[in-house]
Amino acid sequence: MSKISVLCVDDSALIRQLMTEIVNSQKDMFMVATAPDPLVARELIKHHNPTVLTLDVEMPKMDGLDFLEKLMRLRPMPVVMISSLTDRGSEVTLRALELGAVDFVTKPQIGIRDGIMQYGEKICEKIRSAAQARLPNPAQRTAVKPVSLKTLIGSEKVIAIGASTGGTEAIRQVLEPLPPACPAVLITQHMPAGFTHSFAERLNRLCQITVKEAEQGERVLPGHAYIAPGDKHMELARSGANYQIRLLETPPVNRHRPAVDVLFNSVAQCAGRNAVGVLLTGMGNDGAVGLLEMKKAGSWTIAQNEASCVVYGMPREAILLNAASEVTHLDDISQHMVSRLASGQAIRI
Q1: What is the pLDDT of residues 322-344, one digit of tens each?
Q2: What is the distance between the alpha carbons of residues 50 and 131, in angstroms, rounded to a whole number?
Q3: In this predicted structure, what is the pLDDT of residue 250?
Q4: Is the domain of 245 the same as that of 114?
Q5: Cis before 251 (ω within 30)
Q6: Which phi and psi (to 5°) does residue 266 adopt?
Q7: Domain of 328, in residue numbers
Q8: Final residue in a domain of this structure, among 77, 107, 139
Q9: In terms of domains, do 119 and 184 share one?
Q10: Catalytic residue among 286, 299, 325, 336
Q11: Does residue 211 lie within any of the structural domains?
Q12: How far lies 217's CA from each of 65, 138, 194, 226, in Å?
């Protein structure tokens, strides 16, 4: 297997040096070149044809977003954004994912050398993930198909969704068509603290349902979607006849917090046949075992199919476990999950 060639675009000479050290320390990748701005990067891309590009958000001469938009239109390639953990940084990063970036890494606010080196393993994981990604094409984005809701669905019905790499856009595509009267949706997307609030706000502006970052102890209501906060596990819990949100700072599961398995396991216990579980695009196996638990509890379970995944990792692992009741293209998931809850049908294994 050939090595992953990486090109780093960052206006900081220190970041370029540290990224080179991190990448070159791995046996399966190497830094082919670095660039201080997008204009230099453009020529280096033509010359080296790198496997993956790492791209800073804020740079001189051309903004990272402007460059990304042109790149994805003229010469699509896997891009990992290097983002600042700020309100503006999170908004810009989410826009970059919308434009076609595969993933992002956050820059530490202080102690850049030590901070970046501590992130070394995570940076390399994201580069490997990007190298395997199926690139989304925003220009060919499918028009939103409104979901038909012919019968009233009770408040005891819930939908649980898990995703990782490529998940921000996949989740948007699943939520946008949902009608205001749809069942409550609980979502775990692998994302660090500081980004989930902006992610929820962006979705709330686009969707008919209310989308928000989940809060400890709040009641779970129909017509609402709840995003697990970065760095906290989210569970579904019972409070009398109602559902509520439980947030936990317990250790990571499958190396993630929030973890999809934590959400799915709680939904299996609390909702059983009244739930639908959906596992979307992502690297690794988080959510596969939890989806199986949901299926055993009588939930209908859906795995995104390979053709529509950015990274066909988590759904593939679930399918190998026989955890998916059905395997469905991303375009059809919204209607399938709502129709299944309206029909009241589920299966047991």
Answers
A1: 999 999 999 999 999 998 887 75
A2: 10
A3: 97
A4: no
A5: no
A6: -70, -35
A7: 158-343
A8: 139
A9: no
A10: 286
A11: yes
A12: 38, 37, 20, 12
Is position 203 within any domain?
Answer: yes
Instruction: Confirm whether 190 is a catalytic residue.
Output: yes
Region of poorest pLDDT, from 67-81, 105-119, 130-144, 204-218: 105-119
348: pLDDT strictly greater than 60: no
- The enclosing domain of 173 has a CATH number of 3.40.50.180
**Active site (annotated) includes residue 47:** no
Active-site position among 84, 90, 190, 256: 190
Q: What is the pLDDT of residues 246-281, one digit of tens each?
A: 999 999 999 999 999 999 999 999 999 999 999 999
Torsion of CA 141, 302, 172, 211, to 10 degrees: 160
pLDDT of residue 4 exceeding 60, the answer is yes
Report how many domains make up the chain. 2
Tell me: pLDDT of 345 over 50: no
Q: Do residues 293 and 272 lie in contact, with contact meaning Cβ atoms separated by under 8 Å?
A: no
- Given a contact cutoff of 8 angstroms between Cβ atoms, the answer to whether 83 and 169 are in contact is no
The CATH number covering residue 134 comes to 3.40.50.2300
Report the pLDDT value the prediction gives residue 271, as an integer from 0 to 100: 96
Whether residues 166 and 243 share a domain: the answer is yes
Residue 208 has pLDDT above 50, yes or no: yes
Q: Which of the four pLDDT bands, split at 50, 70 and 90, describes residue 92?
A: confident
231 given a catalytic annotation: no
pLDDT above 60: residue 289: yes
| Residue where a domain stops, chosen among 74, 108, 139 | 139
Q: What's the whole-number mean pLDDT along residues 33-55?
A: 95
Same domain, 167 and 258: yes
In sequence order, what are the residues at sequence separation of 6 or more whose Cβ sits closer than 8 angstroms to the Cβ of residue 166? 102, 133, 136, 280, 281, 282, 309, 310, 311
Q: Which of 83, 129, 164, 266 is catalytic?
A: 164
Q: Does 226 lie in the same domain as 134?
A: no
